[in-house]
Write a structure and sequence with these properties.
The complex is a heterodimer of chains A (about 425) and B (about 260). Chain A is of the alpha/beta class and about 425 residues long. Chain A contains ten helices and 14 strands. Chain A is globular. Chain B is globular and about 65 Å long. A nine-stranded mixed sheet of chain B has the order 1-15-13-5-7-11-12-4-14. In chain B, strands 2-3 form a two-stranded antiparallel sheet. The chains are: A alpha/beta (about 425), B alpha/beta (about 260). Chains A and B meet through helix 5 and helix 6 of A and strand 2 and helix 4 of B.
């Protein structure tokens, strides 16, 4: 559990967000790609089995170029450690002293890792994880072997995480089942303020009242199709939002032939794509300015997309297209938020157990499970989240061969 | 003939005739008609800035707006309903301009609507009204004054939904048939989002005001404001919809001319 951050002195200048040095080789970014999904993986040589560190283009042992990113156990032994008291880099200067160490992984290589405060001096068993740093780069972090993934006890390492505890969160749609589950989960995770967006206030939904009664919750009128309204709420609370979770969406289930014109697809785009754009314009600047605002800085922006953003699912074809557009835009947002150290987290659920997926057979992702995974993803500091078996299975097929997946989905929709 | 117009203008200038705006301000939070979510939906009013004396247009301010033909204070043309689909001149671009200036009879139902949100106006009530104010003339608007406009700043109360749907007042089947068959009115106007009551999908036929009025080439006016400022008879309405090709309806500015109270 994090201590409640101290209130800041409002007459002192707000610190400007800084990020650690960014450049990485294309090969080394492989580590980032793995860490983005919460995995610690290194390249293993397909010919001789040697595990490579740092990432390389050909095997250090046999020069083979057949290198495959392979998950590591993380178990290792701390061999040496040091504490930096000086740095020429502005980011680290603010965070000195900084602890680093050399760890031998049980898979073989010796790696350089940031050391958690509680790691005992060498020799000691540690657990190495891959995290995204403030700049969104994959870095290795060594934790005490007995600690269960909790970054929060070392204040310097808190920055690898976007823990909602003591943070102020906006959930853009508090009416849907996913929205309600998110609000409950955030409240349980210790969020101090939860703004809950509501469009079309005259439409009531089951469970809505219970959510609104939570002491952390403040309802705000928010309809992502309304530019002026989004700007107004952005002006009112944008300077206080630490985590924005955009779960508002229009979800309908039709392809091209059965959608009878562009009107439905337009409504999907209005919320799922243009809504994200309007939100980003209204909330982005104020959040960027607060990327280093003391212990409770702005830290994350979450987009609840869909696994259909990766490849079109023809029975929900226009919805898939709107989510693909949102995915593309969120990559732009991520690039723009990067310098402020604000993490843009994209969530790719498979079919959720909600009214528009009613005819679909299980497995469907429970909203509560999705909410739990999102909060855990924030704590773990991941960037791409594939909650549930269906999403992970799709991801596997997509990574294996997107063209094959396209054909498979076309076939599946004929039998659907 | 010019004397008539001069008299009219002189009457307005001398405050003997009042110009009353029966229109609500149309903003993004103005509640729009809501159907079951699997059906096509009316778009609410939305406005996006093109420029505001800035880099996008240095000396000028303007917006693009989108909305449904049936959003805000609006006019319903006969083509809006299936019963009026085959009629001549049934869309907003073809209705005769003479119909856009017409007298209005205002039926005060404010107490009934306050007592019962599902209040239905009956033929008997119209006959009682006629006994007091005289026969409803052919070609007149009949406006149902319910006080609903007072709720406009509270969209939840204005829509008034619960788990079985919307609860707003409107006419019953006999009332509509009487106005169409026996009185040959120009149309029916309300302060609510529809000319029919909130539960009118459960009447027979469903949505009788839409069905019979539009089937007979009559019009509708919805989301009217300031009906409390109109006399029971004697007001003249100016109701010119936008000239939208094959338009089924149109937002419009509804103006009334009334004699100033003596």
């Amino acid at each position: 559990m994090r201590a409640r951050p101290r209130l800041k002195n409002p007459i002192l200048r707000t610190r400007q967000p800084l990020t650690p040095p960014m450049p990485r080789s294309r090969t080394a970014l492989g580590l980032t790609a793995q860490a983005a999904e919460g995995r610690f993986a290194l390249q293993r040589c397909e010919s001789c089995g040697r595990v490579q560190y740092p990432p390389v283009d050909s095997c250090r042992g046999c020069l083979s170029e057949e290198l495959l990113w392979t998950p590591m156990s993380g178990r290792g032994e701390l061999l040496a450690h040091t504490t930096l008291h000086h740095s020429n880099d502005p980011f680290y200067r603010e965070r000195l002293p900084w602890r680093l160490g050399l760890t031998r992984l049980e898979e073989g290589p010796v790696v350089v890792a940031h050391l958690h405060r509680d790691c005992p001096p060498p020799p000691a068993a540690v657990r190495v994880t891959a995290k995204l740093d403030k700049a969104g780069r994959g870095v290795l972090v060594a934790l005490p072997a007995d600690e269960l993934g909790d970054m929060s006890t070392d204040p310097r390492h808190g920055e690898f995480s976007c823990d909602p505890e003591h943070r102020k969160v906006l959930v853009t749609d508090g009416k849907s089942r996913v929205g309600q589950a998110l609000v409950r989960e955030l409240a349980a995770a210790g969020a101090s303020v939860i703004w809950v967006g509501q469009a079309e206030p005259w439409k009531k939904y089951e469970g809505q009242d219970a959510v609104e009664k939570l002491p952390q919750v403040t309802v705000v009128p928010l309809d992502l199709t309304d530019e002026r309204g989004v700007k107004r709420i952005g002006a009112e609370i944008g300077g206080r939002v630490d985590i924005l979770i955009n779960n508002a969406e229009v979800h309908r289930t039709q392809g091209i032939a059965d959608s009878g014109g562009a009107e439905l697809a337009r409504r999907e785009m209005e919320v799922n794509y243009l809504g994200l754009l309007r939100l980003a314009q209204a909330f982005g600047p104020a959040m960027r300015a607060r990327g280093a605002d003391g212990g409770a800085s702005a830290t994350a922006w979450v987009n609840v997309l869909s696994v259909y953003a990766l490849s079109n699912y023809p029975p929900q074809g226009t919805y898939s297209a709107s989510k693909a557009a949102a995915l593309s835009l969120s990559q732009c947002l991520r690039a723009e938020m990067q310098d402020a150290g604000i993490r843009v987290v994209n969530v790719f659920p498979g079919p959720i157990d909600e009214e528009w997926n009613q005819p679909l057979p299980p497995p469907k992702l429970a909203p509560e499970r999705l909410a739990r995974d999102i909060v855990r993803g924030l704590r773990d500091g991941v960037e791409d989240l594939f909650p549930g078996d269906v999403a992970r299975e799709w991801l596997g097929r997509w990574k294996d061969n997107p063209k094959v997946l396209e054909r498979e989905l076309a076939l599946e929709s004929r039998t659907a | 003939m010019t004397d008539l117009l001069q008299d009219l203008l002189a009457g307005i200038a001398a405050d003997k005739l009042k110009v009353i705006d029966l229109t609500h301000t149309l903003g993004p939070s103005f509640p729009q008609l809501s159907l079951p979510p699997e059906m096509g939906q009316a778009l609410p009013y939305r406005s996006e800035e093109i420029s505001r004396y800035d880099g996008r247009g240095p000396a000028w301010y303007w917006n693009n707006f989108t909305l449904c033909e049936h959003t805000g204070t609006h006019f319903d043309a006969p083509i809006h309903w299936v019963s009026g689909r085959e009629l001549p001149n049934n869309s907003v671009d073809t209705i005769p301009p003479e119909h856009m200036i017409a007298p209005a009879c205002v039926i005060d139902c404010t107490e009934d609507a306050e007592r019962d949100a599902d209040f239905l106006l009956t033929r008997e009530r119209l006959e009682e009204w006629e006994a007091e104010h005289g026969r409803i003339p052919a070609g007149a608007w009949v406006l149902m004054h319910t006080g609903w406009a007072r709720r406009v700043n509270d969209p939840v109360a204005f829509q008034n939904f619960d788990e079985i749907g919307q609860h707003t007042p409107g006419p019953d089947v006999d009332c509509v048939r009487f106005l169409v068959d026996k009185r040959d009115v120009l149309g029916f106007g309300t302060e609510t989002i529809g000319t029919d009551s909130g539960q009118a999908q459960r009447l027979n036929p469903p949505y009788p005001c839409h069905y019979y009025m539009h089937g007979a080439g009559k019009y509708g006016l919805q989301c009217l404001n300031n009906l409390d400022r109109l006399p029971p008879t004697g007001a003249v309405l100016f109701t010119a919809p936008l000239k939208l090709e094959e338009g089924s309806g149109s937002p419009l500015r509804v103006l009334a001319l009334t004699p100033a109270p003596a």
